[in-house]
Every structure is written in C-alpha cells, then in structure tokens.
Amino acid sequence: MSTLPPRRLNIDNINPHVRVAKYAVRGELATKAEEYRIRLENGDKSLPFSKVISANIGNPQQLDQQPITFFRQVLSILEYPKLLQNGEALKNIFEFEQDVIDRARTLLKSVRTVGAYSHSQGVPIIRKSVARFIQLRDGFPSDPSDIYLCGGASSGVNALLHIICADRTSGVLVPIPQYPLYTATLSVLEAQSVPYCLDESTAWGTDVHAIRESLSKAKAEGVDVRAIVVINPGNPTGASLTADDIKDVLDLAAEERLVVIADEVYQTNVFIGEFTSFKKRLRELQLEEPVKYGNIELVSLHSTSKGMVGECGHRGGYFELVGFDQEVVAQIYKFLCIMLCPPVIGQCLVELMVNPPKEGEPSYELYQREYTTIQEGLHERALALYEAFNKSMEGVDCQEPQGAMYLFPQIRLPSKAIAAAEAVHRQPDEFYALRLLDATGICVVPGSGFGQKEGTLHFRTTFLAPGTEWVERIVEFHKAFMDEFR
Fold this sequence. Notes:
The chain is of the alpha/beta class. The protein has helices at 16-20, 28-41, 69-79, 87-92, 98-111, 124-138, 152-164, 181-188, 208-220, 243-256, 278-288, 290-293, 326-338, 344-354, 364-392, 415-423, 428-440, 469-484; strands at 53-54, 147-150, 170-176, 192-197, 224-231, 259-263, 298-303, 317-322, 396-397, 406-407, 410-411, 442-443, 445-446, 459-462. The chain folds into 2 domains: 16-52 and 370-485, Aspartate Aminotransferase, domain 1; 110-354, 3-Layer(aba) Sandwich (Aspartate Aminotransferase, domain 2), CATH 3.40.640. The strands form 4 sheets. Strands 2-8-7-6-5-3-4 form a 7-stranded mixed beta sheet, sandwiched between helices.
C-alpha cells in the first residue's frame, strides 16, 4: 500500500505567532457549546438541558434580539432594488413606510449596487452621515475625511495595530481584564502587550497610577510603548468612564506621547450616567490648554454589532482619526486599500445606525418603540443577573452593571475545586465554566481568557439571552458545585 506524501504545512511550521495567539471568546468552551447545540438539533435527549445559551459572546441576534425593522427594510431594498418597481406593494402589503423607500433610494443613488466595491475609505455620503452624527453627539466639528468605514470595529483595530507596531519592541497598553482581540492581534504582530489592571474595588475603574507603573516597567525592559487602549464602556467589565477618568488618560497620553485607541462600541449601552466620548473630552481640553493637548493622536471606534442594533453579521463599523500626521494617515489609507473595501451592505447599515428615523417621520414611532424595548430588556436582565450573583450565589461578588453587555463576577471556589481543576490540568475558572456548560448548556468565558489580577477568579457572561429562567439554572448549578467540593 502506497504512503501519501507529507503535507507542506503542519502545526510546527506555520506562523508561530498565530499558533500562540489566544482568543478565549471563541475557544474550547464555544466549540463544545456548538457540539451540544448540534446534538440537540439532531434529537439527542441524553443531555441534562434542552437549549444551549451562548452567553460567551456579544452576539445579540443569535440570542433572539430582534433586528430593527427600519434597518432591515432599507437593507432589503438595497439587496434587491427591483422591489422599488412596485412601491405600492411595498407600502400596502409589506407595510414599508415612505421614509424607508426614500432612504433606500438615497443610498442606492450613492452606492449604485451593494455588490460592487466602494471607495476603500468608505462611501462618501455615509462618511458624511457619520461625521454629522459625531458632531451632534459631541458638539464639536467632525470631518468626513477623517472617517474610515470598516468591517466591524475589529477590522479597524487590526489595521491600526498593523500601522502602530513597527517591530517586536513596540508596545501597547491594554486594560486587564480586556477583550482578547487586542492581545491576540499584538501576539500575531509579535508586538508587546503591556497590561494595566483595572480596579475591581472601584467598579473596575481606570487607575492612572496603575497605568503609570505598567508603563514605567515596560520602558525599563526596553519596550517602546506607543499607544494605550481604553474600552469605554468596558468589555468584559461593563464599567463606564467619567469625564474625569477620560481626562486622566488624556493627561498621560499628552505626557508620554501615546496614541489613544478609544474602543467605544458600547456607547449606547450605558445604564448609569451618560456616555462621554474621548473625542468630546479631548476637544474640551484643547480649548482650555491648546499646547498641552494639541498633538494628541486619538482614534475612536464604533460598530453596528452592539448597542440596540446588534447586527454583528453585517460587519459594519467606523473609526475616526484625530491629530495624526498626514503621512501616517496616507499609510493607513494604503493599508486599507490592500483590503479593497469594507462590506458595502455593512457600510449602509452604519449610515442607518448614525442616522435613524427622526421624530415626525413615518418610521420613527416603531423605531423608537423597538429601540426602547431592547434597551429596557437588556437592563432588566443585567439587574437580574447582578442580583443573582450577589444575593443567591455563595462566594460570588459582582459590580453593579454600568454599561456594555456583560457582567464579570468574581468567584471564590473551594480548595477542593481548585485541586480538582489542577488534577485535570485546567485553570480553576476554566474548570468551573466547563462544568457549568456540561450541566446547564450555558456557555460563559473564564476570566483567565481576559486576564485577571493574580489570585482572583472570574467569568464573563452576557445578559443578552431572553428571559431570566436561565439565570436560575446558573444559581442551581453553582449551589450544587459548591456543595460537591466543600
């Protein structure tokens, strides 16, 4: 019997930086959850649950969040413009309002077809809408030429880190706990992730002293720290920064010449206080002290995947550049040109997100009702989880939800549970999360996947799944787990 020749690629000769990169949100737990989902769909009755809850990832529509009607109606016309040939049927049979038809015509006039490439920076009329949205939000001008549409915020982060990181000595300050996009991308780029710990005792506050300590340590080790990432509201913590918190970060950026990467994709998911953008706070400070803050380089990102839109699959987003050298801007644009352009249908969705129906327009009432229902439902479920963690689960502490789509409770496990985890070569929080999945079908992400202060254990869960019955399943599992390992 002949032997097949060896394949050219194997696990030992592919890019080693990809091999060591970690992305826990879609790691082993998510893979196992999907296997359980398929078994249930195929009629398997042997599992102790009837439904998998993917609380591991901020994917609203996978967990039954309904799309905004106005958005999907406009997109349907963009995908099949022949629908416009029978406007009366659209109105009378499918209940499309006139402003839906008008918006679709306006966008089609600019893009012509969503099946064609656009300008690499994005469709000009859509960038104008984004700039207008930012100006109305912040009260300061925004230039469409500074707006770059992208395939979700993740695509923008990837492009920017490719530009910022010149070699293996390049470093970026990253909050811990953090969304693992940043550390994974830096790992692939063979650049340095410089962690700074958020303060759990102050509701995951951004402690500028901790940042300075991390920065000094990295510089002493020869790292060229070039940028700082701030996620506001926070992922996975849900923390929401005040105007003073933002000023502290901008002060540090001014002193240390750091590029500020403001990940603001959860800006509409705020439960306590109001969202303040880094752009707004920077412009205010520049009016007060134009020399000190005049050359700060800021990039802020937003996305259609979160908020009340929840259109993760359409891959729409943007970033705005502020204060960058024009030769660097040209290189960013060149890098984006290599990728041709972001999905055009996603770009159109960005336009709808930043320019929704206005009061007095035919679609406004339904849009507002749908938006508010989603917003109130998220807050209700966040509070249900928060109360369950703090009042019904032994050894669990959770900060009050301020924003975003997640809670990040701390869990204190019995020594026998930690020993059991070590016996199977697992991190204790990973062991806990796997047992939770096996018992309930609820998939969360262990805190070790985001980074956590040494000696602490956490897990991250979304509160996107409808209803609160699944919260009780977590409570029941936790009691049984703690009893088992006393």
